[in-house]
Design a protein that fits this description.
CATH topology of the largest domain: ABC transporter transmembrane region fold
CATH class of the largest domain: Mainly Alpha
Number of domains: 2
Number of strands: 12
CATH architecture of the largest domain: Up-down Bundle
Number of helices: 20
Length: 603
């Protein structure tokens, strides 16, 4: 029930399980674009090199100007403005080149990042189509959607920022250190003394904030699941007056998200002010020592000016590296969730899938045993055969295993024991896509997507013409109501199909199955959501459609399957009776009891 309980609540919080392994996997994705990455690194290095040369050039200008002013005062010379002007023009050229290189590397790295995200989204989409149904029993839709959207977006933004900053920061630290050594060894020593303090700060903050970044991504997936579930079940929530409970459940998870996000952002936010404090300490040390060196004649004013700029250029990349560590934590948490989904078990496929040479539609259940939980079997020992072209009706009380048989037939699940054969070949040896292409299916729960009615019907056979689509709609007895809609076949169905009635949605899905024109049919309560008159019309169309095809029909209203070739009566996962409608009524057993009870209730 929406608002009553949600998957994933009460999970324990844990740190990233394998930070190093996750990063190595991610590097494998990035490594597919080696040339772009290498060029990006090269342009990033050039941008930093051009930029860090600037302060020393500017310091030499200051020194030249200082020496010229002293010479002018002493009458021994003058300021060489021509040299200063040319030097400043050269410096402008360096800064322009640095900006151009930075622009190119940004363009390259953004392309790499988006290609990695594109590949991940594509792999997730492919994974969804091969992941077993059991996976979704333990994971909410919102959590899966969060991995596709939020986690991949976080990965993309963080990856682009991290790679660029990591390259430029490391290059800048090394380059600035070399330039500082070329100016003054004592001043360089004062500046380098701040590094251990910076490393300790980064280590402490990373240690305490890492767990909260992972929790933030986990709880975000849970919150998305609640939003998706409550939105889909809003009618039920309102009818049962569960709005307050739904809001309360959401607020509980939203509070968890707030707490984890606040803690992670607060701890990461401490990084900048603490690093700024360390940087300012470095400034003070350089000014004090630099003043002593200048008074002793061991340093020129231009050298002091250049060095102060280099101190800023040295502490800034250290701060950026601290930010990168925060960003990489968030990226690792998001990436790990994506890789966890991609590493989920897939549907088993035979090493050498086969397809029968002849397909006549024969289906055999041979001592089949199955349970969604292997320790609690639903089907105990089921054996029967459906002959080619035969219509097999499956009836029984709720929970008897009727729909489960269909899931086994489609290989949504595999049997735990015995074998299930189609055309003499065990379904586990079939090519899965070929097996499913044999069946057209109409379920009790309709599924329509946001698009026109024509597009929804054509989903059964994408290459069908408009005339074939309309012919299928007429066969399914939905052509009439389609023409009453604005736009007819071009009427746009919304995402949930709520702008059609339940019966109309059912008719559209039946038209889709008619258009598919598959050798075998599966009808799971296909007429359960239409009125009696429409049901009769659809039944006639279905009788015509099922002729010559092996058909499996699940029905609660037993009057709809009186013409079936054989009726299987299930009870607690076993066949308790089998025969035609007349034979089972004459038997006076469980089927007769079910059949007559409908009229008793009607009376």
């Amino acid at each position: 029930m929406p608002g009553m309980g949600h998957a994933g609540r009460g999970r324990s919080v844990e740190k990233a399980k394998d930070f190093k392994g996750t990063m190595l996997k991610l590097l494998g994705y990035v490594g597919e674009h080696k040339m772009a990455v290498l060029l990006g690194i090269l342009f990033a290095i050039c941008s930093v090199v051009f930029n860090i040369v600037g302060p020393k050039v500017l310091g030499s200008v200051t020194t030249k100007l200082y020496e010229g002013l002293i010479a002018t005062v002493q009458g021994t010379g003058s300021v060489d403005f021509a040299w200063i002007g040319m030097t400043l023009l050269g410096l402008l050229g360096l800064y322009l080149a640095s900006s151009a290189c930075n622009l190119v590397q940004g363009w390259l790295m953004t392309g790499v990042t988006q290609k990695v995200c594109y590949r991940m989204r594509a792999e997730i989409a492919e994974k969804i189509s091969v992941i077993p149904m059991s996976y979704f029993n333990g994971h909410s839709k919102g959590d899966v959607l969060s991995r596709i959207t939020n986690d991949v977006d976080t990965l993309g933004q963080s990856l682009n920022q991290s790679i660029t900053q990591l390259i430029t920061s490391v290059t800048q630290v090394v380059g600035v250190l070399v330039m500082m050594l070329s100016i003054s060894l004592p001043l360089t020593g004062v500046t380098v003394l701040t590094l251990p303090v910076s490393v300790v700060i980064v280590g402490v903050v990373v240690h305490f904030s890492q767990r909260y970044f992972r929790e933030q991504q986990q709880v975000l997936g849970t919150v998305n699941g609640i939003v998706e579930e409550d939105f889909a079940g809003q009618n039920v929530i309102q009818v049962f007056n569960r709005s307050e409970t739904a809001v309360s459940d959401f607020e509980a998870e939203n509070d968890r998200l707030f707490t984890s996000a606040w803690r992670s952002q607060f701890l990461s936010g401490l990084m900048m002010p603490l690093m700024s404090l360390v940087g300012n300490m470095g400034y003070v040390g350089v000014v004090v020592v630099g003043a002593q060196l200048a008074l002793a004649g061991q340093a020129m004013p231009g050298d002091i000016q250049s060095f102060i700029q280099y101190v800023r250029n040295f502490t800034q990349p250290v701060q950026q590296l601290a930010n990168v560590s925060n960003t990489m934590q968030s990226m690792a948490a998001a990436t790990e969730r994506v890789f966890e989904f991609l590493a989920a078990p897939e549907e088993d496929e035979p090493a050498d899938p086969r397809v029968p040479s002849e397909r006549d539609g024969r289906v055999e259940f041979d001592h089949v045993r199955f349970g969604y939980d292997p320790d609690q079997p639903i089907i105990h020992d089921l054996t029967f055969a459906a002959e080619p072209g035969q219509t097999v009706a499956i009836v029984g009380p709720t929970g008897a295993g009727k729909t489960t048989l269909i899931k086994l037939l489609q290989r949504f699940w595999d049997v735990d024991g015995g074998s299930l054969r189609v055309d003499g070949l065990d379904v586990r040896e079939w090519d899965r896509s070929e097996l499913r292409s044999e069946f057209a299916m109409v379920l009790q729960d309709t599924w329509l997507f946001n698009g026109t009615i024509r597009e929804n019907i054509r989903y059964g056979r994408p290459d069908a013409t408009d005339e074939e689509v309309e012919a299928a709609a007429r066969a399914a007895r939905c052509d009439h109501f389609i023409h009453t809609l604005a736009g007819g076949y071009d009427f746009v169905i919304n995402e949930e199909g709520t702008n059609l009635s339940q019966g109309q949605r059912q008719l559209v899905t039946i038209a889709r199955a008619v258009l598919a024109d598959r050798p075998a049919l599966i009808l799971d309560e296909a007429t359960s959501n239409v009125d009696t008159r429409t049901e009769e019309l659809i039944q006639r169309a279905m009788d015509e459609l099922m002729r010559g095809r092996t058909s499996f029909v699940i029905a609660h209203r037993l009057s709809t399957i009186r013409n079936a070739d054989v009726i299987l009566v299930l009870r607690d996962g076993d066949i308790v009776e089998k025969g035609t409608h007349e034979e089972l009524l004459a038997l006076g057993g469980f089927y007769a009891e079910l059949y007559n009870s409908q009229f008793d209730h009607a009376a």
